[in-house]
Write a structure and sequence with these properties.
With 126 residues, the protein is mainly alpha-helical. It is 46% helix and 11% strand. A hairpin with a 5-residue loop joins strand 2 and strand 3. The longest helix is centred in the last third of the chain and has 16 residues. The radius of gyration is 21 Å and the shape is elongated.
Length: 126
């Protein structure tokens, strides 16, 4: 959920606002998977196996409050809940695609050469 209700804009203000809305460990992955279409809670859990039920619920609620995710509850037994992106959430398609592309490039990079650890000189106490 956004930490600020208003922003005193400086040069990085739009970036800060965006990261407040979509930042966090799991929100990007949730948005990425919802770009494929409507998913039930359990389907999201399977696609993001490391997220806890509590964190997934919290992030979905925050994304819903931000107007990016729509939550549809069906009056059935057992209850069925589906999540999808709103039109506003769909506007993040290019942003998520750019993050995916950057991540693929980053993961393919040549790992840096290991460097020898720097030795610290022991200083005798006087």
């Amino acid at each position: 959920m956004a930490r600020h209700k208003t922003y005193d804009c400086s040069a990085g203000c739009p970036v800060s606002a965006t990261l407040d809305v979509i930042g966090g460990k799991w929100k990007g992955l949730i948005l990425y998977h919802l770009l494929e279409g409507t998913l039930r809670f359990g389907e999201l859990r399977k696609r993001i196996p490391d997220v806890t039920q509590r964190m997934l619920t919290q992030h979905l609620r925050e994304l819903e409050q931000s107007g990016l995710v729509h939550r549809q509850v069906y009056a059935e037994v057992p209850p069925r809940v589906e999540y999808s992106l709103t039109p506003q959430g769909q506007t993040l398609r290019g942003v998520i695609a750019a993050l995916k592309s950057w991540g693929e490039t980053y993961l393919r990079r040549k790992p840096p050469e290991p460097t020898a650890p720097k030795r610290r000189l022991a200083v005798a106490a006087r």
